[in-house]
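Re: the request from the purification team.
They wanted to know what the chain is likely to look like in 3D before they choose a buffer screen. I agreed to run a prediction and write the result into the notebook, where they can find it.
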Amino acid sequence: MKKRNIVSLFFIAALFFIQSCGIPNYFDYESNIDFTVNSVSMTDGTANIFLEPSILARIDNGEITPIPTTPKIYLLYSISGTDSSNTSLISAFNSAYQSSINNYPDDYDGFIKRSIAPVTGEDSIYFALYPFHNENGDHVNLTADISGFQSDGYFNISVSQQTVSDGFVIMLTYGNGETMALYRFNDDPFEYGITNYDNDSDDEFRQNLSDGDASNIVTPRIRVYLASTMGFRAYTNFMYARMVEIANFTI
């Protein structure tokens, strides 16, 4: 009798949990089919976030409503050379954040790092992904305006170099022509010469001075990466546009 009462209590508790929390709702899309980063031109520094036009139509007629903080645009950068660090970082990011990218880290220490030798026979250097900062020193946190998506499903993004007094910044243009200057994660402008990225305690290679020499990196460059997520109200799953490299700038 006592065992039966315990089972009954568990059953009642389960019913209460289902009624109070509800059964999760899942949106009917497939990752990397309806929502992608594509049309990448490394030469021009351009790319598009693509959202299936049929989904845009469902948004327009009020059938579904995007979560206000989405589509979220994630822009990151790394500094490396003619090695496999970019593909390694991309693979690691997509593996780590595909199911949790909406909560990715805000600073360098939480991001993906990969140890790779800059040239044959050299000690390895930890190449890493870094978040951009804006001119106010804040982490760049962008939400794509749905009105910025064209009728064919494309949301335009482009990056280019713009000279400033002590180096250059990366100018971002997106959506309906909004612009933003992107700075390094330590708030400095980008500079020419790899040694400008490993001299100070807050530089990109500060943690590797005893392991490898950044000056040995062949054809150093800034690589810019783009990923995105999107979710809808009343649904628990998110679409994920896998991270890709969209541009690189020689330094």
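For the purification team: The CA atoms of residues 56 and 62 lie 10 Å apart.
Please add any questions underneath this entry.
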